[in-house]
Amino acid sequence: FPGGKFFSQRGFGYDTNLGADTKLFRWVEYGRGMTTLGPQTFMRISFEPQLARRMIECERNRNCDDVFKFRPWKTNTALPTVTIDRVIPGSAPNTAVVEIAVRENKGSGRSEYEDTTAVYNLRLFRDGALVAQYPKLGVDEDLSDIAIWRERNLVTLDADGTRHVSLPVVLPTGSGAETIALTAYAFN
Questions:
Q1: Tens digits of per-residue pLDDT, 66-108?
Q2: Distance between CA 179 and CA 173 in Å, rounded?
């Protein structure tokens, strides 16, 4: 955008037709040196669908302050560390127990831009499908308020800043089930 006018006056926004997990582009956030961040870091607070068209229209109509609300773009980019420690057989033939370690992530304190994060909503995926989460939430819980979401999804850590969680998972059977991929992550 010419002269960065949109970004400097109205905060930071972007639009893309690529998914949040794409590896085709990365962000460099001011004040963090050359540490690059994936697009998912900014997806929740900075994504502006049809950004270029909307910006051109609001400039023409002189109503950009109404169309785009200013949002400071300082984002907590400290992601929790999640490690799958081991997978052991479960109590039934087609089950396993996945042992996961979750740690908070603390910056070194050398920069005003380094963040510390609590750990929320640990999720376990089997071949890309969500199969378990911790803490387990009720089906009817209304988590639309961020304070309630944080309260219900907080992963309490032990004194050493780590939480060990064992999550049961059903394993697929039949043709094509010889190899599966287990992945886990948690929110900041």
A1: 877 665 555 566 778 899 999 999 999 899 999 999 998 765 5
A2: 10
How are strands ordered across the β-sheet holding 162-170?
A: 81-89, 95-103, 162-170
Report how far residue 147's alpha carbon sits from residue 153's, in angstroms, rounded to the nearest whole number.
10
Question: Taking the model in full, what pTM does it have?
Answer: 0.61
Closest CA to 105 of 131, 125, 70, 77: 77
117, β-bridge pairs = 105
Q: How far is CA 30 from CA 20, 75, 105, 114, in A?
A: 20, 11, 20, 11
**DSSP letter, residue 3:** G
What is the distance, to the nearest Å, from the Cα of residue 143 to the centroid of all Cα atoms in its chain? 16
Q: What does DSSP say about strands 36-37 and 27-28: parallel, antiparallel, or unpaired?
A: antiparallel
